[in-house]
Design brief:
Rossmann fold, 7-stranded mixed beta sheet, alpha/beta, globular, 340 residues, 2 domains, 6-stranded parallel beta sheet
């Protein structure tokens, strides 16, 4: 059995991406995952200095410097790694240093810049502009969610849709008006399409936003609701399984990706104002998903007028998700020892 160390920088979304990749590999090669803490604690202006010290190929940092620049926690009983995986720029100094220390491949998921491609064994990225000799270009960032997993959680129920609410992010700042528009849009769609809603908020939503949604959503249109700030329940995957369509606020790349990876039609809801440039990674990522007919994007105030048809989507299947792990495994030393 192989051991994969996942370096966490503290973002649940980034950890989810790494776990998703490990789960995909586990289908082909039995492995265990160990999550370690490895978040750089430097101010932004100091990071270029550390990159310069590590050089074009990413020489490892010594213990003294590594523990000065990062919060590191490794379980005392953790077996030595055969592979190190991380996502998110603040994990790279620790991930690269540990990979060099243990002489194992280091896989990075997502936008690698400003780090050189030579720092990584393989870069798994949905950003075409970052293509390099050691990259695997993907449409979807890995997550633990797959069509097979969701199918195991329940059966699709006709006339049942799911709304997944996140919160305001740096580039997508949902305002009170946006939340009210979403609530009113849900009411309008329920009447127009004769459907009922499953609704779940998240840790990022907050009690004030939940109160606002409760005030404006008609209780009779809700089949079930999870209010995370009030009484959290871990039933998101069950909601996904039961719903015909998934609606998700577009504040989290991981949250939208999980919805698409379920194999269900997805509507990604934007706030009225987006504070991101056209070349921003998330903007290009969502636009590509829409071009490929994985999602429909709509703004909060247009939700009630949305016209949807399941046939307009190119739904993801399990085989498409398995291809990334096969590509990666063919590059690893494991492929030789396993006859792959």
């Amino acid at each position: 059995m192989k051991t994969v160390w996942i370096v966490s920088e503290g973002s649940p979304g980034h950890v989810s991406q790494s776990i998703g990749l490990a789960c995909a590999l586990d289908i082909l090669v039995p492995l265990q995952t160990i999550t370690i803490t490895g978040r750089a604690t430097l101010r932004g202006w100091v990071r270029p200095i550390i990159r310069w010290l590590m050089g074009p190929h990413g020489r490892p940092l010594n213990d003294f410097l590594l523990h000065r620049i990062a919060d590191i926690k490794i379980p005392s009983d953790a077996p030595l790694p055969d592979l190190i995986v991380s996502s998110g720029g603040k994990s790279v100094f620790v991930g690269k240093t540990l990979a060099e220390r243990y002489k194992v491949p280091y896989i990075f998921i997502g936008e690698r810049k400003p780090y050189p491609a030579s720092w990584f064994h393989t870069v798994i990225s949905p950003a075409p502009k970052e293509a390099c000799d050691n990259s695997i270009e993907i449409e979807l960032i890995p997550t633990p969610v797959t069509p097979d997993l969701i199918a195991q959680k329940g059966t699709t129920e006709k006339g049942l849709w799911c709304m997944i609410i996140g919160g305001a992010s740096r580039s997508r700042r949902f305002s009170e008006n946006d939340w009210v528009a979403i609530a009113q849009g849900m009411n309008e769609l329920a009447i127009k399409k004769n459907i009922r809603w499953l609704l779940t908020t998240s840790r990022r939503t907050g009690a004030e936003t939940e109160k606002l949604l409760k005030k404006h959503i008609k209780p009779e249109i809700l089949e079930d609701a999870i209010w995370w700030a009030e009484q959290p329940r871990r039933e998101l995957y069950i909601f996904m399984a039961r719903a015909e369509l998934l609606f998700v606020t577009q504040d989290s790349v991981t949250m939208v990706t999980e919805a698409v990876s379920s194999g269900k039609p997805v509507v990604a809801i934007q706030p009225k104002r987006i504070h991101a440039q056209p070349e921003d990674f998330s903007v290009m990522y969502f636009e590509r998903l829409e071009r490929n007919k994985r999602i429909t994007q709509t703004q909060s105030y247009n939700l009630g007028a949305l016209e949807l048809g399941v046939n307009q989507y190119a739904l993801l299947d399990q085989l498409e998700l398995n291809s990334i792990s096969k590509q990666l495994l063919s590059r690893l030393p494991w492929s030789v020892s396993n006859g792959l």
